[in-house]
C-alpha cells in the first residue's frame, strides 16, 4: 500500500524526513571515513587498473 504525504500526520512526516536526513548523513560519514583510509584508496586504484587491463570476470563466471 502506498501512503500519500497528504495522508500522513505531521509527526509521521517529521519522522520520515528526520530518518531520511539521518540516513544520508550516516552514508556521507561512512564515505568520508573510507576515503581517509590508505588501504581503501589503494584497493580502488588496484581495482580500476585490473578493469583497464581486462582482468575481470563476467557475472555468469561468478556463479
Question: What would your notes on this structure say?
Answer:
- This protein has 63 residues and is an all-alpha fold.
- The protein has a domain at 27-53.
- Helices cover 65% and strands 0% of the residues.
- The chain is built from two helices and no strands.
- The longest helix is centred in the middle third of the chain and has 26 residues, at 10-35.
- The protein is elongated.
- The two termini are 35 Å apart.
- The mean pLDDT is 92.
Question: Which descriptors would you attach to this protein?
Answer:
mainly alpha; 63 residues; 65% helix
* Assembly classification: single chain
Span of the ends, CA to CA:
35 Å
What is the strand tally?
0
Shape: elongated
Summarize the structure.
This protein is mainly alpha-helical. It has two helices and no strands.
Helix and strand topology:
Elements: H1 10-35, H2 38-52
Amino acid at each position: 500500500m502506498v501512503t500519500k504525504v497528504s495522508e500522513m500526520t505531521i509527526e509521521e512526516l517529521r519522522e520520515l524526513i528526520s530518518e531520511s536526513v539521518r540516513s544520508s548523513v550516516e552514508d556521507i560519514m561512512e564515505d568520508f571515513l573510507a576515503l581517509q583510509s590508505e588501504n581503501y584508496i589503494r584497493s580502488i586504484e588496484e581495482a580500476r587498473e585490473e578493469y583497464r587491463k581486462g582482468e575481470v570476470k563476467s557475472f555468469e563466471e561468478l556463479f
